Amino acid sequence: MTDWPNHAEAWRQWRDALTGERMHHGWLLAGKAGLGKRDFAMAAARELVAETGVPQPQGEHPDIIALTYGPKDDKGEKAQAEGKPFDLARSIRIKQIRGMQRRLITRPTLGSRRAIIIDPADDMEKSAANALLKSLEEPPVGTFFLLVTHRPARLLPTIRSRCRTLRFPALTDSQLATLLADGGLPPDPQAIAAAEGSFGAALRFAEQNLAPVAKVITALLAQGDNGITGRGELARLIGPRADRERVQAVLDLAQSLVARAARASDNPQARARLINAHTALVSLAAEAPTANFDSGMLPFEIGSLLVAAAPASEPAHG
């Protein structure tokens, strides 16, 4: 497991609560993607359920239930049961929450506590979020929830209000360089700059070979696009049948580069365009996993949002 240098304060707060008189039953682990929140959740859950004198398993723990994206359909469920590859759903579904709640009827297996991890909680279906809310309102004795969230504002306000928040800060450039080197990857300055403090983003930059994509995005922001040449090149680099992981990596990269350009701009009009483009990219990233976008057109949609922020998009006056 990665040794995360940005977790010290979260551990302090967690352990203070763990040794206090009354442990809060709901926790939000909040911060941008790629900051190790799931690693923290798994390690914190193990500390929570462990009891003195009771041997704890090294692998999967019967008193830790972790929910994330499951199979997208019955065919996928069958493939999962057979140990075969399957396509993932684009959200955490009510079926998964109901299954977890049925397990809460029984007592924990090894001790008096049980931990529920939902990652990412902001990708629950609305019906799943409403079902989870009932458990948060009346949690079974000894049950604790750790909700990993990259975008807390997407959670129901009633869920947020029933949880205590642990915030995970972005990593510094030097911390990112160290983590990349520890993982056997070169600390590429371009990857570090584009990552905006996210180790996950830096890893994807390297693994997905996003340097050429970053170059095209930067050019679209700076120069616009004469015709659709630049957007066509972006689509080519993303790939005609890019999988969900690659599309999300490009969306994250685009948001990062637009945000960096906005911070660097001293032109109010240019900054406003960049902020608008960033807002639109955030919305597109939130919609892309569940909306029925044409895989061939999505790169052009990303490119058009970037072009709209370029100086060439300014209206002529005269």
Automatic annotation (TrEMBL):
Q: What is its EC number?
A: 2.7.7.7
- In terms of superkingdom, the source organism counts as Bacteria
Q: What is this protein called?
A: DNA polymerase III subunit delta
Q: Give one GO molecular function term.
A: DNA-directed DNA polymerase activity
Q: Which Pfam families match?
A: DNA_pol3_delta2 (PF13177)
Q: Name one GO biological process term.
A: DNA-templated DNA replication
Keyword tags: Nucleotidyltransferase, Transferase
Record has Cell membrane as a keyword: no
Task: Give the enzyme's main class according to its UniProt record, as a single word.
Answer: transferase
The keyword Transferase appears for this protein: yes
Q: Which InterPro entries match?
A: DNA_Rep/Repair_Clamp_Loader (IPR050238), P-loop_NTPase (IPR027417)
UniProt organism field = Erythrobacter ramosus
